[in-house]
Design goal:
DNA-binding; homodimer; transcription (chains A, B); 6 strands; 42% helix; WH-like_DNA-bd_sf (chains A, B); four-stranded antiparallel beta sheet
Chain lengths: 156, 156
DNA sequence: CTCCCACTGCGCAGACTGCCTAGTGAATAG
DNA sequence: CTATTCACTAGGCAGTCTGCGCAGTGGGAG
């Protein structure tokens, strides 16, 4: 169920040069085209590769402010709150976590002032007891997977 | 600097069917191929589209546990801590946030037990004063961008 | 020893990409 | 009012890649 060295190198290659084709990838990896194709197909059907969606930078479309909000939810209101948050476009991501029935969500906004509007939108809902927000200043490590892939392929 | 309706529809299309080609996209959008190509090129050089990296599911490569850790940093140790965390493969993402010199990072681990090892790795570093961790149980809203794109293209 | 599987190396038809040209309509500047 | 600019349409061309299939090879498992 893990990934081997070849899978790892293929993933790294795709992460670094996403628009590369199967043929070019096979050349870089030093294997036959069929092999690269088979590996790629397997990674996709395995669920290792979820997809190749475009990575859109929220800042570039007018939402330069990112924040994380920790929400405390009233007992039994979880489903309602999830449904509510799913309707807010500025909520990019939502997790339920351990702890006192908490949720953690990632928000974006057009400005610090606009963030207030977004937060009001988010917490202006019956099931939410309390919210604490942390505004992101810097992002020293952007979302990455290559180091993990490398480790996984070494160990697996 | 924003995106218009056509950009928005193109982004949605790409998000939904990432491996679609320019030609097919132009057909679906009802525009000429050159137009679709020009829009796509512009979105890329604008920085709106950062890339088309494969989305790898950590769970599928043996890291099914996700957690968020809030770190409190000793004054002046920020740079060292960032450098330290950047070397840990299980740290998928790191943000510095407002508040008491805090950082927020996303971690993955092979199991709940393994998470202890990862946390020790992360916090076993001089500059970190305190860490509080929340284990993710569910992910009702996975990272998404389409709703925001739709809103941005309506307003822009 | 035999079977099975992954990999290699090859070829084919179809489709797509990058690049170019010419013409149109709308908005803008003079 | 006219000239210019810009985005878009529509088409063409050469080169390349993809999806697919086929035969052959080598190593591991039963």
């Amino acid at each position: 169920m893990g990934i081997d060295g070849l899978d790892g190198r293929l993933l790294e290659l795709l992460a670094h040069e996403p628009r590369i084709g199967v043929l070019e990838a096979s050349r870089r990896l030093g294997v036959a085209r069929g092999t690269a194709q088979a590996r790629l197909d397997r990674l996709k059907s395995n669920g290792v590769i979820r997809g190749f969606g475009p990575e859109v930078d929220p800042a570039a479309i007018g939402y330069p402010v990112t924040a994380f909000a920790t929400l405390e939810i009233k007992q039994g209101q979880g489903a309602d709150v999830r449904a509510h948050l799913a309707t807010v476009p500025e909520v990019l991501e939502l997790h339920t976590t351990t702890g006192s029935g908490d949720m953690l969500c990632r928000l974006v906004a057009r400005s610090n002032a606009d963030l207030q509007r977004v937060i009001d939108l988010v917490v202006g809902f019956a099931g939410i007891v309390r919210a604490s927000t942390a505004i992101v200043m810097e992002n020293p490590v952007p979302l990455r997977i290559v180091p993990l892939v490398r480790q996984a392929s070494r160990e697996g």
